[in-house]
Amino acid sequence: MSEHWSGERPRYGKTIKVDNGLKAKSKRGDIGATWWSRRFIEVLESFGMGGRLTRGRTYARQGQVLSLSLSTSMVIALVQGSRPTPYKARIAIKSFTGQEWQRIEHALAGKALYAAKLLAGEMPADIETLFASLGLRLFPATQREMTMDCSCPDWEVPCKHLAATCYLLAESFDNDPFEILAWRGRSREDLLDRLRALRGTVRSTVTREEAPPLTRCLDTFWQRQTTSNLHFGDPTAVVRTDAVLDQLDGVPITVGRSSLADLLRPAYLSLKPEE
């Protein structure tokens, strides 16, 4: 807000309309289609900003926000008001440290469902519980954890320019939940790469021995390859015909009260391995 405050509420002229501004998708009612965007708005309203946020909803729907950018810790928007020069609205939040992100990533990777949902581009419904277990908060708990300012002369926080920015920010979270995490300091690419690495899904480069020239193996090239010369394991090992059922261990597939693997095992054991 402007530091030049005379103690009187500033007077505004007619709002300058914008043709190609960013418009909220919601035309009426609440803004926010997903639980995480609605949660962001709920957090702001819990700070007593509800009434002041409402004034910016019209601005957001009219397209008065000219631009919106998000980076680590900072959201910056240009909002057209009643003056020729657009106002700059800024919303800042503290990002997590590198050590905090390491703890977060290990916790997320340790829960298969969380990792799967994030890899699919969805925010897990109880992810706030995971952050809380680490002594952290995904969304701010107090107004002091966020800093808002605008270049307009209004002394209230948030002014309608900041409020419009908040609503469009919430809708950007609808489109990409990773923006919430990027705001806290970890981009989509970096987070997913780390989760894949921690989950062991990153493909490693395997160094293979170079095959010998054909001229050096003409005598054996057409011979039948055996288990021993292919190095597939111990050629004297006994092959269990039910080994494939071991892959079902821990999978909750049952028929009645019995495990599917246990029901199928007798049939597999009755099979005779190929000589």
Automatic annotation (TrEMBL):
Domain SWIM-type residue range list: 139-170
Entry annotated with the keyword Iron: no
Keywords: Metal-binding, Zinc, Zinc-finger
Keyword Nucleus: no
Pfam families in UniProt: SWIM
Signal sequence segment: none
Name of the protein described by the UniProt record: SWIM zinc finger family protein
Organism: Lentzea kristufekii
Lineage: Bacteria, Bacillati, Actinomycetota, Actinomycetes, Pseudonocardiales
